[in-house]
Amino acid sequence: MAFRVLAAPDKFRGTLSASDAAAAVELASQAARWSCDLAPVSDGGEGFLDVFAGYGSRQATRVVGPLGEPVEVPWLLGRDREYPSRSLAVVESALAIGLQVVGGAQGNDPVRASSAGAGQLVAAAIKAGADQVLVGVGGSATTDGGLGAVEVLAGGGRLPRAEILVACDVETKFSEAALVFSPQKGAAPAQVELLARRLERVAQLYQERFGVDVHQLSGAGASGGLAGGLAAIGAKLLPGFELVAEKLSLAERAASSDLVVTGEGRLDRQSFAGKAVGGVVRLATGAGVPVLVVAGDVDPEAEEAAAASGSRLTVVSLVARYGLERAISDTAACVREVVADYLAHWRGA
């Protein structure tokens, strides 16, 4: 009977998407005559859309980018696998209002940047008939508290008729979003203070208009407060990985595998505190299945966190094994070689 590996990596930021990392694991598995179940994962940030690639047909909508430029943005429309009668849409807000849209922090205007494009994406999904919309947030150029999106979705006083589930990649509170994230989006110290004051005014506005106190919601600060804005108009905020794992039936797929392979660009202590890789390790360990974690680089503190996760866990750093240059320039091949070597020495660990 053939052995089975579950390939469930997150992205290797800047070098390899989660889907391409999973494909590298698959190539190594095929060479070793293992079957491979592809399940790239996300915690709700960049790469969220790719995780659901098999869920439906690819759509595209032209929306307004963070600074007003038109952007053609892909999204998915299909059926919920658990409830086939329900239409499901998946959108990734970073594709509409992400920093990459404006060329990074240096090309951003953090005070002017608006989340309206994310609202337009959700509106397009609802107009297309989606009963439920999954929204991945993270990597945005905005710190407007989601006000741009809210004005699109509820500007006329009518709330969205679809169920909106927001996959949050952080637990940051609404009022903390400016201090924590806006410097990464190009905000100078004075602008950070201005944005923090503006978020307080936006929170008060949401309280008055919708009766929702976004201050109390974990994750409301995700995407510069976009998560909180969506929550104000009825969306549910959920830990990103948990939402992904549920929709992909990841626990069941891990339990039916002989080995789980996951990974990301940099493994650190935060990887085991609500992030995707730690979530995969937790599910596999709970099922008694050994795990191979392949990371671009490994923070020394992560070694201790990994050791505490279970004795059936192996961690490999591409930088330590192949050097920085090759780990960055030839990431997919490095991942494939690590997995191939592990399978060649497989003893049912």
Give an overview in words:
α4 (116-127) packs parallel to α5. The chain is built from 15 helices and 11 strands. The chain folds into 2 domains: 4-41 and 258-344, 3-Layer(aba) Sandwich (Rossmann fold), CATH 3.40.50; 48-242, Glycerate kinase, domain 2 (Alpha-Beta Complex). The longest helix has 22 residues, at 189-210. It is α/β, with parallel strands linked by helices and 349 residues long. β1, α1 (18-31) and β2 form a beta-alpha-beta unit. It is 40% helix and 20% strand. It has helices spanning 18-31, 48-51, 94-97, 116-127, 147-154, 177-181, 189-210, 222-232, 240-247, 250-255, 276-286, 300-309, 318-322, 324-329, 331-344, and strands at 4-7, 35-38, 56-64, 70-79, 87-92, 132-136, 163-168, 236-239, 259-267, 291-298, 313-317. It has a 6-stranded mixed sheet with strand order 3-4-5-6-7-8. A 5-stranded parallel sheet has the order 2-1-9-10-11, sandwiched between helices. The chain is globular, with a radius of gyration of 20 Å.
Sheet/helix structural class:
alpha/beta
How does the major sheet shape up? 6 strands, mixed
Say how many strands there are. Answer: 11
Q: Taking Cα atoms only, what radius of gyration do you get, to the nearest Å?
A: 20 Å
Number of domains: 2
User: Spatial order of the strands in the main sheet?
Assistant: 3-4-5-6-7-8
Helix share bin: 40-55%
CATH superfamily of the largest domain: Glycerate kinase, domain 2
CATH class category of the largest domain: Alpha Beta
